[in-house]
Design brief:
Pfam families: EF-G_D2 (PF22042), GTP_EFTU (PF00009), RF3_C (PF16658). Keywords: Cytoplasm, GTP-binding, Nucleotide-binding, Protein biosynthesis. GO terms for molecular function: GTP binding; GTPase activity; translation release factor activity, codon nonspecific; translation release factor activity, codon specific. The two termini are 38 Å apart. The strands form six sheets. An eight-stranded antiparallel sheet has the order 18-17-23-14-15-22-19-20. An eight-stranded antiparallel sheet has the order 27-24-26-25-29-30-28-31. A seven-stranded mixed sheet has the order 2-3-1-4-5-11-6, sandwiched between helices. The protein is globular. By secondary structure, the protein is an alpha+beta fold. The protein folds into three domains: 234 residues, P-loop containing nucleotide triphosphate hydrolases (Rossmann fold); 100 residues, Rossmann fold, CATH 3.40.50; 125 residues, Alpha-Beta Plaits (2-Layer Sandwich). The chain is built from twelve helices and 31 strands.
Length: 524
C-alpha cells in the first residue's frame, strides 16, 4: 500500500451533475466554481443579452440556445479536497455522452426543479446511476419560486425512483414568502435575506427550536415548518451513511442555485459525505486498487476543437490508479502499442492548465492526434489492464450525408471522421454505393453535427432524412447481400460490420419470418 498516494486519492471527489434540461444544473455548477474561487462571477445560462455566458457551456451553439450539449469537466480545490465536476448534457438527445460520463464518476448530484418534480430525462439518467450503484445526492432547486410541497417532493423520490430520500434541511416558506432553511444536519437556521451577511445562521436550542426572543420564532412560516419537522422526525427516514454509499438512500437538500442560497451548505455536506475513488474491476475479474503504484485509466470522451484557434482534439481520461506525470509511457490496451503522454491538461472552467500530477479520481485531457477511441484503456507497467467496455447505443434516427461542395472533399472527410470519433453520431456506409449515413439517438445531434461541420471544418453538408429505423447487426457468415430491399437497407458500421436498417418493426418481423435461422443483434 502506498500511503502517500492513498492520502492524495482520499482527497478526491469526482461526480457528475444530472438533471432534466432547465432544472438549473449549469447554474449550480457555476455557483460551486464560485465557491471554489475559480471564477469571479456566476454567469447564468439565460443571461444571453449581457454576453455573460455560463462558464461550463463552451460551444458556440450552446451559447446561442442556452443549453448544454457536451459534458464539460471542471476542477477546483475546496476545503482541502480536490473536486472534479463533470457537467453532463441535460438534453435527452445527448444521453449517450451522459451515460459514458456516468461511468467515469464516483457519485452523482441530481438537480430537481422544485416546481416540476422528477421529469422523464432525470428518470432515465437515474436508471444508469442505479445500475452502477453509485451514491446520489439530491438538490431540490428553485426555492426562490413557488413550487410543490416539500413533503410531496421527497415522497416522489421513493415513488418514482425507488430510492429513499432523507431530508438534510427543510424550507421555511418558498417563493415570495421564503425566510430560510431549517438545517437539520447542522442544527441551525440559514436565513434567506439576513440583515448582515456575517449573521446568516441562527443557532437552535436543545429542543431544536429558535429561542423565543428571535423575531423569526413567531413567524407563521417558521411555525408551519416546525410542524413539518415534527412530522419528519416521527415518520421520515433516518440518515444512514452506509445506505447512501450503497446508492439506496439519497440525502435531500433544498435551495436556490440562482440566488446562491443553500449551495454552500450542500457543497460542504457533499464533500464530507461523498466517497473517495474506489477500486475498479479490470481484465473481467481482477480488482485494481486506486493506490496501486502503476498508472492506469480509461477514455470516456473525445472532443474536437475545444479551442477553435488550434483545431485540437482532446481525449478525456479518468485516472483509476497510480500517478500521472508528464512524459509518462503507457500502453494502449486495444493495440498493445506504446504511447508517450507528453501533453496533458486539466480544466478550470474554460481555462486549461498543464497537468503537473494527477491521481485516481482526476480527469485529465490528453492532446490526441488520433491514437485514442472512446472506451480505450491505457496502463503503465508490464501487467496489462483492460477496463470493462463502455455502453454502446443503437441509433434510432438516420440521415444520408454528403458535401455540398465536391471540391471540399478533404475537409468533409476530416470533419466526418473527427466528429464521429466523439461518439455523438454513428457513421455507416451503404453496402453497395458506399454513401455516408449518419445515425443518432436524437435530432439535435444532427443539428450540432451540421453546425460544427460548417463552423469548424468549413464544410457545408447536405442532409437527407431516412427517418426512424430499426438497426440490427447480422453475422457476416449469414449475410447474403440479396437479403436487402427498400424496406431493409444494408449498411456497414465504421468497423466494417454489416447491419440492416429496417423501415419499422413490421419490416423486421417480416425478415425474421423469411429468414428464421438468421440471428440479428442490437446494442443497448
Amino acid at each position: 500500500m502506498n500511503k502517500k498516494l492513498l492520502d492524495k486519492v482520499n482527497k478526491r471527489r469526482t461526480f457528475a451533475i444530472i438533471s432534466h434540461p432547465d432544472a438549473g444544473k449549469t447554474t449550480i455548477t457555476e455557483q460551486m466554481l464560485l465557491l471554489g474561487g475559480v471564477i469571479r462571477s456566476a454567469g447564468t445560462v439565460k443571461a444571453r443579452k449581457t454576453g455573460n455566458y455560463a462558464t461550463s457551456d463552451w460551444m458556440e451553439i450552446e451559447k446561442k440556445r442556452g443549453i448544454s450539449v457536451t459534458s464539460s469537466v471542471m476542477q477546483f480545490e475546496y476545503e482541502g479536497k480536490r473536486i472534479n465536476i463533470l457537467d453532463t448534457p441535460g438534453h435527452q438527445d445527448f444521453s449517450e455522452d451522459t451515460y459514458r460520463t456516468l461511468m467515469a464518476v464516483d457519485a452523482a448530484v441530481m438537480v430537481i426543479d422544485s416546481a416540476r418534480g422528477i421529469e422523464p430525462q432525470t428518470k432515465k439518467l437515474f436508471k444508469v446511476v442505479r445500475q452502477r450503484g453509485i451514491p446520489v445526492f439530491t438538490f431540490m432547486n428553485k426555492l426562490d419560486r413557488d413550487g410543490r410541497e416539500p413533503l410531496d417532493l421527497v415522497a416522489e423520490l421513493e415513488d418514482v425512483l425507488g430510492i429513499e430520500g432523507v431530508a438534510m434541511n427543510w424550507p421555511i416558506g418558498m417563493g415570495q414568502t421564503m425566510k430560510g432553511l431549517y438545517d437539520i444536519a447542522n442544527h441551525r437556521i440559514e436565513l434567506y435575506h439576513p440583515a448582515d451577511a456575517d449573521h446568516r445562521f441562527l443557532p437552535l436550542n436543545e429542543a431544536g427550536r429558535l429561542d423565543p426572543d428571535q423575531p423569526l420564532a413567531d413567524d407563521p412560516q417558521y411555525l408551519d415548518t416546525m410542524d413539518e419537522i415534527e412530522l419528519l422526525e416521527g415518520a421520515g427516514a433516518e440518515f444512514d451513511r452506509e445506505a447512501v454509499l450503497a446508492g439506496k438512500q439519497t440525502p435531500v437538500f433544498f435551495g436556490s442555485a440562482l440566488t446562491n442560497f443553500g449551495v454552500e451548505t450542500f457543497l460542504q455536506s457533499f464533500v464530507d459525505l461523498a466517497p473517495a475513488p474506489a477500486a475498479h474491476v479490470v481484465n473481467e475479474t481482477e480488482t485494481l486498487a486506486p493506490d496501486d503504484d502503476e498508472f492506469s485509466g480509461f477514455i470516456f470522451k473525445i472532443q474536437a476543437n475545444m479551442n477553435p484557434q488550434h483545431r485540437d482534439r482532446i481525449a478525456f481520461v479518468r485516472v483509476c490508479s497510480g500517478e500521472f506525470s508528464k512524459g509518462l509511457d503507457v500502453t494502449l490496451a486495444r493495440t498493445g502499442k506504446p504511447v508517450r503522454l507528453n501533453n496533458a491538461v486539466e480544466f478550470e472552467s474554460s481555462a486549461r492548465v498543464q497537468v503537473s500530477e494527477a491521481v485516481a479520481g482526476d480527469i485529465v485531457g490528453l492532446y490526441d492526434t488520433g491514437n485514442f477511441q472512446i472506451g480505450d484503456s491505457i496502463y503503465a507497467g508490464k501487467h496489462k489492464v483492460e477496463f470493462a467496455p463502455l455502453p454502446e447505443f443503437t441509433p434510432e434516427l438516420f440521415m444520408r450525408v454528403s458535401p455540398k461542395n465536391v471540391m471540399k472533399q478533404k475537409s468533409f472527410h476530416k470533419g466526418m471522421n473527427q466528429l464521429v470519433q466523439e461518439g455523438a453520431v454513428q457513421l455507416y456506409r451503404n453496402y453497395q454505393t458506399e454513401d455516408y449515413i449518419l445515425g443518432a439517438v436524437g435530432q439535435l445531434q444532427f443539428e450540432v453535427f451540421q453546425y460544427r461541420m460548417k463552423n469548424e471544418y468549413n464544410s457545408d453538408v447536405e442532409m437527407t432524412s431516412l427517418g426512424h429505423r430499426v438497426a440490427r447487426w447480422i453475422d457476416p457468415d449469414q449475410l447474403d447481400p440479396k437479403m436487402s430491399s427498400s424496406r431493409n437497407l444494408l449498411v456497414k458500421d465504421r468497423f466494417g460490420n454489416p447491419l440492416f436498417l429496417f423501415e419499422n418493426a413490421f419490416a423486421e418481423r417480416w425478415f425474421h419470418d423469411k429468414y428464421p435461422d438468421v440471428k440479428l443483434t442490437e446494442k443497448l
